[in-house]
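F.,

This is the one I mentioned.
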């Protein structure tokens, strides 16, 4: 029975069919429960016309960790009838709307949002496409760039930064952050549906909180009905391609030439076949080490219309793709909008979530879909109970239990939070955050990095390149479902500067942060030296201790491990030295309410080879690098900031 046939049945019949679909899945497979009310997400946007152009396309939102406490927060756009909301995660499975106190409770014609640390100050900022407040008609030049001050407030700096205006069009849609020139700063791409107003723009980050419009110089052509952009390295040269999803057969695949310019390779790549491209995600669905591209579109039961639905472009290498055929099982997603890739059942294969909806009778009561990867490049479709006409879809681990949950924004209906309740045996997992703050040449949060998790003979791949799902952005975290594997034999992070960090024998079922590794100082005699290894440190919320694991442990004649309060730096009154001789080890220290705690590994040359800093209670900052050759008295405070 087709999805549109379902839409003509009664609501009760639909619910019974949905339950049958879910119950038919294998034991231990995914199960999602609606936790919207329990989590305190009481938010219903209101977008009406003609005050807002193309109002039924909107609104969206974005996931970020705006207070850097390790718990994902949620920014939601209200539209022209409701002020925007900023739901800060309480760390207890609930959220509290702090938009007013943070200065972002703005009533305006908001469209979409994206998150990125554009000024490399360690705090995630928010970019919003908007048609302006309600003091005048829907108008251009009103986009917002909220700079995160780090103290619980935002400031709109869009005009000063030069990103408030993209075109005279009033149909601006999504945006995305990425480092297209690999200079360590996040650049910005903004899309517009109207191709006649040159609204699809690439802004290069100048590194001083301003941007330059380099669209023409970069070779981007303006024949797009633009919806959703992404920066992703699709050919393995570290430079991200531009994947531009657009309506009316105008999606584009731009290859990054590595010199600030792009070449349109849509035709030769075998992409751009989607009739009505709207949402997008990227994932390695067949685990061959090459990222595939998924585009949502419109599927009609009457195939004489030519609307043949979603496209999964399977990467063949060398910028060539092959579309997954109808038998692959992902074509029919209804009137598709937001989408994301995730392994929702932790079997080691990337699945797909997609939301949809439109006013046409054929799509009324169409549910959001889950496409389970069967491991052979076919997918089995199930669904979530229908709650709204979905627009944006975002993934996040809001309760930090190791599986990815879903947030769906809706047109004039309540935002929904679907908690992933995956259960059963063989459902292990690993989540990885990237901290690139010590290396100026690397983009914040490791954006653009490639992560490989090897378990036995199986390798999985993830790109830290979150872009627009459609009007929204998911959490910046790498998530791997590990099935029965109790650890990852080798975890490798390939940074965009060409270096690689490797961790061996990483236990499953934990959340870790990885930073780039460095070599030891000249003259270091420890073997192997600790600087090329990893420090793993995290706040244990159950005990209140900061737990640190180091591999290998220091040799007492060459390394010393210290911890204490930052105020002790000047007097060198370190406490709790924890030194072993040539073996791995671990320790814990109690910050005891200290605002600026540190953990250090110091070589006998005075080199700070690794550190774990704490800005404020609950805001932890693990690092495993420092400036080569730094002198302890001079550089300790800089490292711990």
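My design for it:
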């Amino acid at each position: 029975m087709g999805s549109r046939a379902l839409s003509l049945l009664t609501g009760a019949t639909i619910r019974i069919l949905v339950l049958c679909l879910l119950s038919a899945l294998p034991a231990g497979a995914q199960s999602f429960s609606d936790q919207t009310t329990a989590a305190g997400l009481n938010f219903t946007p209101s977008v009406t016309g003609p005050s807002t152009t193309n109002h039924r396309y909107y609104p969206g939102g974005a996931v970020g960790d705006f207070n850097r406490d390790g718990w994902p927060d949620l920014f939601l756009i209200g539209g022209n009838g409701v002020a925007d909301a900023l739901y800060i995660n309480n760390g207890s499975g609930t959220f509290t709307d702090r938009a007013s106190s943070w200065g972002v409770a703005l009533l305006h014609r908001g469209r979409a949002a994206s998150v990125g640390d554009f000024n490399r100050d360690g705090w995630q900022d928010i970019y919003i496409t908007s048609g302006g407040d309600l003091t005048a008609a829907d108008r251009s030049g009103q986009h917002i760039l909220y700079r995160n001050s780090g103290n619980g407030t935002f400031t709109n700096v869009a005009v000063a930064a030069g990103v408030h205006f993209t075109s005279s069009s009033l149909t601006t849609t999504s945006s995305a952050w990425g480092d297209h020139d690999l200079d360590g700063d996040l650049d910005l791409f903004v899309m517009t549906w109207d191709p006649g107003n040159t609204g699809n723009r690439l802004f290069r980050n100048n590194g001083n909180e301003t941007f330059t419009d380099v669209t023409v110089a970069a070779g981007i052509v303006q024949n797009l009905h633009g919806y959703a952009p992404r920066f992703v390295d699709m050919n393995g040269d570290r430079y991200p391609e531009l994947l531009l999803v657009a309506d009316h057969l105008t999606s584009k695949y731009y290859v990054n030439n590595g010199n600030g310019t792009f070449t349109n390779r849509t035709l030769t790549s075998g992409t751009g076949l989607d009739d009505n491209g709207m949402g997008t995600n990227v994932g390695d669905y067949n685990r061959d080490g090459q990222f595939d591209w998924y585009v949502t579109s419109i599927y009609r039961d009457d195939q004489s219309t030519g609307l043949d639905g979603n496209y999964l472009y399977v990467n063949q290498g060398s910028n060539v793709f092959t579309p997954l055929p109808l038998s692959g099982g992902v074509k029919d997603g209804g009137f598709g909008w937001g989408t994301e890739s995730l392994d929702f059942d932790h079997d080691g294969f990337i699945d797909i979530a997609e939301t949809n909806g439109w006013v046409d009778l054929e799509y009324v009561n169409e549910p959001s879909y889950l496409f389970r990867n069967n491991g052979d490049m076919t997918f089995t479709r199930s669904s979530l109970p229908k709650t709204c006409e979905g627009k944006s879809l975002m993934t996040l681990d809001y309760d930090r239990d190791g599986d990815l949950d879903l947030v769906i924004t809706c047109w004039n209906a309540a935002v929904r939070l679907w908690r992933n309740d995956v259960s059963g045996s063989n459902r292990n997992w690993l989540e990885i955050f990237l901290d690139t703050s010590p290396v100026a040449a690397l983009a914040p949060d490791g954006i653009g990095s490639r992560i490989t998790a090897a378990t036995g003979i199986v390798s999985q791949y993830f790109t830290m390149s979150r872009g627009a799902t459609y009007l929204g952005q998911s959490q910046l975290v790498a998530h791997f479902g590990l099935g029965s594997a109790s650890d990852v034999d080798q975890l490798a992070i390939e940074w965009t500067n060409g270096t690689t960090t490797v961790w061996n024998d990483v236990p499953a079922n934990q959340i870790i942060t990885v930073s780039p590794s460095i070599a030891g100082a000249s003259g270091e005699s420890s073997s192997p030296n600790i600087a090329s290894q990893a420090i793993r440190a995290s706040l244990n919320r159950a005990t209140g201790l900061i737990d640190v694991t180091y591999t290998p442990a220091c040799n007492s004649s060459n390394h010393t491990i210290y911890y204490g309060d930052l105020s002790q730096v000047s007097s060198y009154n370190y406490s709790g030295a924890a030194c072993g001789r040539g073996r791995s080890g671990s320790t814990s220290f109690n910050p005891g309410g200290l605002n600026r705690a540190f953990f250090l590994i110091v070589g006998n040359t005075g080199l700070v080879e690794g550190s774990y800093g704490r800005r404020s209670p609950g805001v932890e900052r693990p690092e495993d690098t420092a400036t080569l050759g730094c002198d302890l008295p001079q550089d300790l405070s800089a490292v711990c900031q």
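The helical segments are 3-7, 11-23, 99-102, 158-161, 215-218, 266-269, 632-640.

Talk soon.
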